[in-house]
Amino acid sequence: MNIVLLSGGSGKRLWPLSNEIRSKQFIRIFKTENGDYESMVQRMYRQILAVDAQAAVTIATSRKQVSAIRNQLGDQAGISIEPCRRDTFPAIALAAAYLADVRHTDWEEPVVVCPVDPYVGPEYFEALKKLGDQAASGRANLVLMGIEPAYPSEKYGYIIPDSAGDISRVSAFKEKPDEKTAASYIRQGALWNGGVFAFRLGYMLDKAHELLDFTDYEDLFSNYEKLDKISFDYAVVEKEKQIEVMRFGGQWKDLGTWNTLTEAMKEHVVGEALMNDQCSNVHIINEINVPVLALGLHDVVICASADGILVSDKGQSSYMKPFVEQIDQQIMFAEKSWGSFRVLDVEPSGMTIKVTLNAGHKMNYHSHKNRDEVWTVISGTGKTVVDGVVRGVRAGDVITMRAGCRHTVIAKTGLKLIEVQIGEEISVDDKEKFSLEESF
């Protein structure tokens, strides 16, 4: 089974846990059987492999999310990197070219495309296999999954099938309606369009070449920023004549707001928090090292992270985006392929960061033009390389790097250090990378 997971999002709707880099699918909020916490993308990936251990999973995402994906999934999944945002059709075309030219997938192979962030059960992944098999049969060029609607929703487009069968030709598509119109669609047997569909790879490549001017994956990637923004629904779905829909009536939730996300949580408290027995339907998610106490609250979500604190009525949480857009501050926490960092303090000419490196991982070998850095190791062991000089390090060691010098740190065990940046122009863009191997 070839699956393309669409991973995007601007990180507004689940603030303060989500941000430009850490979109909702990377928040570790679902408790597993062994007591750890996993994110939406980890949960989705685990569930896919539970149904099909040989599934080829490719994640279509932006550059900014690659490090978080590598941190959470390792190197198992393929990644189709969008150089910039160009909506869903260019993203899917690029992923198709990636499958053909990088992964060497046969053009006759079926490909299933779905969002990375719905909350679903095992039956969903069995349905994905059936969707792919239906696309492979060749009876239709495009096969959609239609979600049995739970209520008249204004958030989804609607698919109206020709019949009430499990698989049907599509009669019409309807844009996101108001609630009254949605109810009338449902009476006609309409299904939610959840953005899940399947096709043969060759079909999508033919469509991509028909609508976009490129030769192969490398050419499409190099000229991606020149493409017009266009949705897959508008470019392909609404114009396709040979199209079917497969009904799905199993568990499926779009966890797009705090209200819907907390409905899927197995516990009411994540992190250090207390509430009294006068609270009802209250969820607390605390990522910072200070306790949170809630007394006598009802239907409320409380979330505390390095990026901010949210206290909201659950119903009102879906209206937070315009307020979050008024908040202008740098990202305070992010996961990287090698570990994570958390900003502890920001001054006009300095910044203090706690860095955590996973065992066996390292930072890029790099330099900064406009700032000095000082590392103080607080736990673990490893080694640093500063202008080609290798030094073993452990708790208590201090390493100083002047502006312009090349440096990296390599973790033998899990390694934690405090990084102090000193300079008048501290910027994430002030970084030049080098090959570590060529420096010796």
Task: Write up what this structure looks like.
With 440 residues, this protein is of the alpha+beta class. It contains 10 helices and 30 strands. The chain has helices spanning 40-51, 63-73, 88-101, 122-136, 179-187, 201-211, 217-222, 232-235, 258-264, 321-324; strands at residues 2-6, 30-31, 37-38, 56-62, 78-82, 110-115, 118-120, 142-147, 157-161, 167-174, 191-200, 243-248, 252-254, 269-270, 273-275, 280-286, 292-294, 298-305, 308-313, 333-336, 339-347, 350-357, 365-367, 372-379, 381-386, 389-394, 398-401, 407-411, 415-422, 432-434. The strands form 8 sheets. It has a 6-stranded antiparallel sheet. Helix 3 (88-101) crosses helix 6. The model has no long low-confidence stretch (mean pLDDT 92).
Considering the chains and any ligands shown, give keywords for the structure.
single chain, 440 residues, alpha+beta, six-stranded antiparallel sheet, 10 helices, 30 strands, globular
